[in-house]
């Protein structure tokens, strides 16, 4: 038994070593990616009930020289742990605002560019001043910017979050709660905080037209939002059935592969310029 225990231990440490060295490699490669322009942004349109584009969401991409495409679902949480999310987010914010301003100038964007925020980024003392600098430097009007926050961001240091949200509201930068319904959080913050929108998480939208429970959640979220004067976005719309169903519930904004996938700026420009079908 002793012998076996030792082998298990060795396997375990080897495995841990491997994991650790993979992470160390990935970490230094991400540093390189941030510094040497291996990151890019894709943009996904948001549409209203008449299929007019009312906004875009910026989604970061990492094109690794040998591993190919690495999903943000993998490297964003890692960057959050290592603190690399700070320079990464700074790059995302500047690039998204630059591109948004270009689209506005070309008459291709009347709505807002939405940027995903990380908890670490939002709770830094200089968050607002960095944001103001980026807006100044890129010339983007705050009325063309939206920030997507998660429930987790608001639950951590709620008092600090309230002050920032009020400042953003005063600047006319709009805010939305991303992945709404997945955070197990109290709903009272919706009443107390100056938030403009909620995005119903894809997991509820996915089977809303088929599952009674997910339908009830979507319906509940939409009713709640209407009572509180918040707009509702349904994300992850892949089928006409999902679209029709959420329309019937009164949802106002839609995002998903049914309409458009996230695209690089040049494809997006053509897509936006093309007469809508
Ligand atoms: P998210 O903010 O919930 O973004 C929506 C995700 O759903 C995106 O995945 C998008 O490509 C995907 N999506 C959109 N429509 C559909 C659809 O119809 N069907 C399906 N199956 N998926 C759809 P993506 O781009 O892989 O991003 C994953 C997550 O990574 C994001 O989830 C967000 O939490 C995070 N993320 C992405 N970019 C950034 C960023 O710049 N900063 C931060 N902090 N997080 C980011
Ligand atoms: Ca988002
Ligand atoms: Ca507002
Ligand atoms: Ca989401």
Features of the shown structure:
9-stranded mixed β-sheet; binds ligand C2E; binds calcium ion; 12 helices; 277 residues; globular; alpha/beta
Strand content is: 15-25%
- Low-confidence stretches at least 5 residues in length (pLDDT < 50)? none
Mean pLDDT: 91
User: Tally of extended strands?
Assistant: 9
Shape call: globular
Name the bound molecules: ligand C2E, calcium ion
Report helical residue fraction: 40-55%
Report the span from N to C terminus: 70 Å
Specify the structural class. alpha/beta
Cα-based radius of gyration, to the nearest Å = 21 Å
Helical region count? 12
- The helix/strand series, from N terminus to C terminus, equals HEEEHHEHHEHHEHEHHEHEH
Q: Biggest β-sheet: count, sense, barrel? A: 9 strands, mixed
């Amino acid at each position: 038994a002793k012998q076996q225990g030792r082998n298990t231990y060795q396997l375990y440490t080897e495995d841990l070593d491997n994991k650790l060295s993979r992470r160390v490699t990935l970490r230094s490669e991400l540093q390189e990616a941030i510094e040497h322009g291996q990151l890019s942004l894709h943009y996904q349109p948001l549409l209203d009930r008449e299929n007019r584009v009312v906004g875009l969401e910026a989604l970061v991409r990492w094109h690794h020289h040998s591993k190919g495409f690495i999903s943000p679902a993998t490297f964003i949480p890692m960057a959050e742990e290592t603190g690399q999310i700070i320079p990464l987010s700074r790059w995302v914010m500047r690039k998204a605002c630059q591109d948004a301003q270009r689209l506005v100038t070309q008459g291709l964007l009347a709505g807002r560019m939405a940027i995903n925020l990380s908890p670490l980024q939002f709770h830094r003392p200089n968050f607002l001043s960095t944001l103001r600098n980026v807006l100044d430097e890129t010339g983007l009007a705050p009325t063309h910017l939206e920030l997507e926050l998660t429930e987790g961001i608001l639950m951590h240091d709620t008092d600090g979050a309230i002050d920032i949200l009020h400042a953003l509201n005063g600047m006319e930068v709009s805010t939305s709660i991303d992945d709404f319904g997945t955070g197990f959080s109290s709903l009272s913050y919706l009443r107390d905080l100056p938030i403009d929108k909620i995005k119903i998480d894809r997991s509820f939208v996915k089977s809303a037209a088929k599952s009674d429970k997910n339908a009830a959640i979507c319906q509940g979220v939409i009713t709640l939002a209407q009572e509180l004067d918040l707009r509702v976005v349904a994300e992850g719309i892949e089928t006409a059935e999902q679209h029709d169903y959420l329309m019937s519930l009164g949802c106002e904004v839609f995002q998903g592969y049914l309409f458009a996938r996230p695209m690089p700026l040049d494809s997006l420009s053509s897509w936006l310029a093309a007469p809508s079908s």
